[in-house]
Amino acid sequence: MFTIGCHLSASKGFKNMGETAISIGANTFAFFTRNPRGGAAKAIDEADVQALINLMREHNFGKLVAHAPYTVNPCSESQKTRDFAHMVLSEDIKRMEYLPGNYYNFHPGSHLNQGAEKGIELISAMLNDIITPEQSTIVLLETMAGKGSEVGRTFEELKAIIDNMKYPQKVGVCMDSCHVSDGGYDIAKDLEGVLAEFDRIIGIDKLKAMHLNDSMNPLGSHKDRHAKIGEGHLGTEAFINIINHPQLKDLPFILETPNELSGYAREIKLLRENYQG
Description:
Blueprint: E1 3-7, H1 14-23, E2 28-32, H2 46-58, E3 65-67, H3 79-95, E4 103-106, H4 116-130, E5 138-142, H5 155-163, E6 171-176, H6 177-182, H7 191-201, E7 207-212, E8 214-215, E9 226-227, H8 236-244, E10 252-255, H9 261-274
Parallel strand pairs: 1-2, 1-10, 2-3, 3-4, 4-5, 5-6, 6-7, 7-10
Antiparallel strand pairs: 8-9
Helix pairs in contact: 1-2, 4-5
């Protein structure tokens, strides 16, 4: 099944996100679990969540890919910032159980001149303190572009975090096409090579979702500026190859391109027309 969607606003509730997804031809979506630039989280309306679950069953949705707020930095040099990250991640993962069996994606963080090794140690320790064997949610580490001191710019860094996990079966990876290209992996011209390297280092079974974003910047730029599909350095053909690749075609694909709903609808239509099943 081709599972495609985009990032939607959670401001009008869960059922509304499902209805909006259906209206643009989507059968999954991403959403921020709380204010993306802050820490506030609305109380869960259980009836609204159940209405979404019913809608998802009725319309054969794939897995959802929730997103942590950008302010979360589990490997900051500041204890206060790490405490905030711990609070958000632990609360969010518990709240995700209202939508059982889905994904919770986050940016691993920036080590802020402590060094990647220290960053990996801090991220791993926090996840081990939060993740439980009972949870149904899989926590996804996002591949990063390597801007500043971001952790997760290489497959090796993500592998090191996963290797430290007490419950590695509860952790996976979300690959962002813009980020990996900006990070130096030529996903546009050497998709096979990139996936082979991912499989060799991490294991392809750990790849659980993909963010589909073109890039405003060339390979290896370490910038992280998303572009609309076909309007960046990756190009439309790269995305057609990604969605039809045997190792990727059954993953949930999430668009995070700079678009309004009408633009997402056009991109979803384009990709659906080029999906070969």
